[in-house]
Amino acid sequence: MIRLPPLNEATTVRVTREGGLAYLPGLAQPRSFQLGECTQELRQRIGDALQSAVPRAQQQAGATVSGGDQRFYRVEVLVRSAGEQQDIFVSFEVPEAEAPEALVHLWKEAGRS
Asked: Is the pLDDT of residue 95 over 70?
């Protein structure tokens, strides 16, 4: 099971839409959120989107979304630790057909700014 780090400890969330038969740069472009620069409302929306996506996700290590023409959302959460040697990095994929509306909306809205 995927365990998300507490959002108040995360520094960056990146959502990328990938897959499909043809490579389309506009679809592959990652949407990055620097959480320290986000409003509280946006941070809440990001947190809600991540929480709704986790139950439908597959972790990247070994299990990738299959199907030649299937698109998916890759979600990456980075926590930079001030006192520890290593950063914490959580990455998972959600098939487009199973992606919660909150995650899809987050990706689409970030692409408009």
From this structure: yes
